[in-house]
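User: Could you write out the 3D structure of this protein bound to uridine-5'-diphosphate-glucuronic acid? I've included everything you need below.
Assistant: Certainly. Input first, then the structure.
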Amino acid sequence: MKEIKNICCIGAGYVGGPTMSVIANNCPQIKVTVVDKNEERINLWNSEDLKNLPIFEPGLDQIIKNCRGRNLIFSTKIRENIALADMVFISVNTPTKKRGIGAGQASDLKWVEACAREVANFAKGHTIVVEKSTLPVKTAEVIKEILDSSTRSQRKDKPLASFDVLSNPEFLSEGSAVKDLLEPDRVLIGGESDDAIISLNNIYKNWVPQNKILHTNIWSSELAKLTANAFLAQRISSINSISALCETTGADIREVSRAIGTDSRIGSKFLASGPGFGGSCFKKDILNLAYLSNHFGLPEVADFWEAVVHLNNWHQHRISKLVISKLFGTVSGKKITVLGFAFKANTNDTRESAAINICKDLLEEGAYLKIHDPKVEEKQIATDLAMNSIMSIDFKGENQSNKKKQNWEKITLLNNSFKDTDAVLILTEWEEYSEIDWQLVSNSMRHPSWVFDARSIVDPEKVLEANLKLWRVGDGSL
Ligand code: NAD
Ligand code: UGA
């Protein structure tokens, strides 16, 4: 069994950064180097001021402070660090393919393949390659083939190398990444070589109880990751579908969630109805599962999982339509406050955020949006809305024909978000939004004014007392 002294992780993203920081912090005997081809990202990981780390995760700054420069290094020197490593984690992005066979469904594995080739070319001695990225079942076969073909064709100028491949998918959630990594429900290690499995097992054993470290075959491990995300997303689509029914029948989704969640077979987690799931992975992983199912001749299985994504899209557009309908059927020229742009609280990540589709719908209908989010930067919002805050549409208001106006702006101070707006739309459950003084807000809005709470974080009584109209997701009593 190989004792691991040097780890190299390729990919310094939302997974590579926090995962390796936690390994380094718990294993001072191991040197952990996180490499990335994106120099700007690496520079941010090396920022003196920990507020400038490229991703925001509660508790991560302290861990980085503890071990960066000690046994945690962030670097752009990919080849050199592969050569030094006993174990290489592949933690690069695996987005949905945009073109070619499987476009719109299959995962694009070009970055994973590029990593396998780099490892094949520059690794020395026996190297354990660990799939940390979420990958379609059977990807390990591709990686192994690339690695093996390199060992077969080793030239004199190439260092001698041999490889084992393991699957070790990551289950962390953004916003609670550090906690999830420190106290995981389980760590999953799939592989064929018992020695390699034990080497990785022994790293986790430094802080994870052995009974939480599961060993499986490599295909089960790859498939379990896709399945876990598909099941979680399915629960959200299920509860969101029922929220629409609640609104038309007089039921309340919070009561329904509580009632079904107390059944120990169902469980209470992941039953909060919201604006629809976002994040970089749920949609991509379900579509990938559907693609694989079709590929293996199981179209009924593919249809089942695709419906989860369809429901999610429908639900997001349902919310924008509802806002428009409550505002007398038109939002043209009306100002709307949007609270939250991240796909969930405690992260600056906006990938697949419900806010993107909902804001685009409202902009399309001519609304002017005042967008607030405590962590998301204006340039990210501009990229997501694919329009620039100062370019934007021709706004032909009554006395302003042909005058160029911007159609959205990022508001930095929460208290400045409400002046003259007709509606407040809450899309991310940031804690500060649950502490808003609705009387003060009401005083600065244009009446009649609405609060649309897609996250169930406001106190309905306080909103109604402040002479504001209220819609809450799945609340049929309003
Ligand atoms: P990310 O986009 O934040 O980071 C990936 C990084 O890999 C980027 O910085 C990119 O520059 C780098 N990269 C790509 N190709 C490279 C190469 N050939 N050499 C060097 N660097 C390269 O992605 P992420 O969110 O960290 O996700 C990574 C993987 O983990 C994905 O497969 C994802 O499905 C999975 N995952 C993500 C999460 C999450 O919460 N984000 C959780 C569990 C699993
Ligand atoms: C999710 C999984 O929870 C992780 O286990 C997994 O590792 C990760 O995907 C991944 O593979 O990328 P993440 O996307 O970070 O993690 O966040 P979640 O907490 O799962 O939330 C996803 C979306 O569902 C968010 O938009 C969230 O607001 C929404 N959600 C979640 C609800 O609408 N209701 C809920 O009850 C829970």
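The CA atoms of residues 335 and 368 lie 5 Å apart.
User: Perfect, thank you.
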